[in-house]
Design brief:
The protein has 142 residues and is an alpha+beta fold. The chain has 5 helices and 6 strands; from the N terminus they run H-H-E-H-H-E-E-E-E-H-E.
Length: 142
């Protein structure tokens, strides 16, 4: 999928969740869509201050967190730092997990889910959610 349909869908999601459409929010989402990997709030802030000098780190971080709350972004903790990426299945509904490069943040989709095994190991339990990530170095960061 190209950037514009993802961006349009994201801006509609923001509006549907009570967020105003601003140039800053559109630029932030566009940056994450184009990166297609996990990035730190610091990296996003550095990019955003090139476009909007004086934009505070707190504003960037708050938006990243808010967008994660409405499932527009995914977040993970890599090397003790929170990282964010545009939700790769935005607008779609397919279940998958990720391999995440601990150096560059690049992700690869894993199309199998280990929960099939764990559900068998937890009879009479109600699983309310799960998260599965494999961390390592991608072929470019070896």
């Amino acid at each position: 999928m190209t950037v514009q349909p993802l961006l349009d869908h994201a801006m509609t999601t923001l509006k549907n969740n009570g967020f105003k459409h601003t140039q800053k929010r559109e630029a932030l989402i566009s940056y994450l869509v184009k990166r297609n990997r996990y990035v730190s709030a610091r990296e996003v802030h550095e990019h955003m201050t090139q476009l909007f000098p004086g934009l505070s780190y707190d504003t960037v971080y708050r938006n990243l967190h808010d967008f994660s709350e409405i499932d527009l972004l995914e977040e993970t903790d890599l090397n003790g730092e929170m990282k964010f990426r545009f939700h790769c299945s935005q607008g779609q509904h397919h279940h998958h997990h990720h391999f995440i490069c601990t150096v560059c943040g690049k992700t690869k989709e894993l199309m199998i889910c280990p929960m099939d095994f764990f559900e068998e190991q937890l009879p009479n339990c109600t699983i309310e959610g799960h998260r599965f990530e494999i961390l390592g170095r991608c072929e470019d960061c070896q």
